[in-house]
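Hi everyone,

Forwarding the result from last night's run.
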Amino acid sequence: MWNHNTIWRPALMTLLCLATAASAAPPPSSILLFWASWCAPCRAEVSDIAALEQAAAPMRVLVVPIERSRASRTLLRGLPERSLFLPPEGGLALMQQLTNRSASLPVAVAINGQGLVCVIQRHRLTRADAENWARLCGG
């Protein structure tokens, strides 16, 4: 079930956004969890990353830090490298680009197999959400 915090984005708008920064394009068939050390729901998502990855399969679940502070590095130290996505322009810039909004956490973005935004959600990602996104976004 989707609520008012779930936003569907037109593929054309996403294509235009991604075309402006192709070097930062997230991997196709992935779920991006934008993350900061001060965001309690974000920290809960990361602690549940294995279950989210299992629910989202075959899509990848990637944590995208919007800050590169010592606190972030410390809290993400135990996360497998394969679960991190570090765009060259930074996570905050990518989040703003993909969501067409300013910083607001938590936020998760599903990228379909063609590399286009499929779903944007502005609350904590659950296992049920991840399962639905894998079906809806062609994971």
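The helical segments are 11-20, 40-47, 49-56, 70-76, 91-99, 127-136.

Cheers,
N.
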